[in-house]
Design goal:
This protein is largely without helices or strands. It is built from 1 helix and 2 strands; from the N terminus they run E-E-H. Strands 1-2 form a two-stranded antiparallel sheet. About 5% of the residues are buried.
């Protein structure tokens, strides 16, 4: 599909993958993963999306880590 977008409208995400070729798949999410405007990551991916830059779908080096522990 063509990228239909402007400064004030556009698709919320775009996903490109060829079965068996997942290592080259891309996913664009211009409103961040949650899509919540109050999230500090809300505009992550927006600049890449509007300039048609590809972001890999598969994970790379972790940036953040969450550790859950129990208190006993």
């Amino acid at each position: 599909m063509p990228a239909v977008q402007g400064k004030h409208f556009g698709a919320s995400q775009r996903f490109f993958v060829q079965p068996g070729n997942e290592e080259n798949a891309i996913l664009t999410v211009p409103g961040g993963q949650s899509g919540h405007p109050l999230s500090p990551y809300y505009r992550n991916g927006y600049d890449e999306y509007t300039s048609a830059e590809a972001t890999p779908l598969l994970p790379n080096v972790p940036i953040h880590k969450i550790t859950f522990t129990t208190n006993q």
